[in-house]
Amino acid sequence: MADIRLLSPADAPALQAFLTAHVAQTMLLRGNLLRTGIVDGTQPYQGRYAAAFEQDRIVGVAAFYWNGNLILHAPRHVAAVARAAAGDRRVNGILGPWQQSLDAQDALDLGSHHLKLRSREILMSLTLDGLQQPEPLPTQKLSWRVATSDDIDLLCGWRDSMMQETLGGTPSQAASRESRGDVERWIAEGNQFLLLDDGRPVSGCSFNARLPDAVQLGNVWTPPEWRSRRYARAVVARALEHARKAGAVTAVLFTDRENAAAQTAYVALGFTVVGDYAILLFAD
Q1: What is the pLDDT of residue 174?
Q2: pLDDT tens for residues 25-76?
Q3: Protein fold of 3-110
Q4: Cα–Cα dist 284/266, whole Å
Q5: Which of 5, 28, 122, 203 is the most exposed place for a label (fewest CB within 10 A)?
Q6: Averaged over 124-129, what is the pLDDT?
Q7: How many CA atoms lie within 13 A of 263 on its CB side?
Q8: CATH homologous superfamily for 126-274?
């Protein structure tokens, strides 16, 4: 029998031990936990954590976060931890290993008629010592830097475009505010990066989770007019080399199963497939 309960700050060491044993699948959980600890609040990265214990050891966890997303890794007792974490709150999205996420969706009675996005992503991982740096094309004069507050307007526009293209988002003031909040946080944390060709910004990426030993890559975006020039793999490679020099040993990402160009770029950098991952988003 499992003990299902909400977690308190005193449970942080046990939670860390469980998550660290599943690096590729738990980067968002680990990153949020590092930023705020176990705090059930409304500020960015805060969340309510529920876990299943067997013999005083965590075997599954789910967290309901400030933005309405339920993120989980629960090889055991997924339905119970999903219900405990969500409670009576409205779930905007579920992220986690594919089958676990579908089981959580069923447990929360979020039928398919509620879905606005159901994406089975490819989960990939790379040991950073094996990172393959791409060579720039002869016509390129590439430079790379950490983004600053001067880049916010540019990057907010890119973020809006990415959300509309990849996640089916609808342009709105609320969506733009959310994009701006994401970009401002990544810049403040030093986790937003830009590639420039002859001084002109052409591609960007972010770390949406960053720990001493690992980073999770996200928000990879090249505007349509600059695509097919290997800019995305160049900005990703330089961001990952930056993380490696800071002590990280592993990089993780998930990408759309239908995005063959992205998969080709990541494989060229040294990434390998380690599983699948769900992004389930629900209508209001």
Answers
A1: 85
A2: 999 999 999 999 999 999 999 999 999 999 999 999 999 999 999 999 999 9
A3: Aminopeptidase (3.40.630)
A4: 34
A5: 5
A6: 98
A7: 11
A8: Gcn5-related N-acetyltransferase (GNAT) (3.40.630.30)
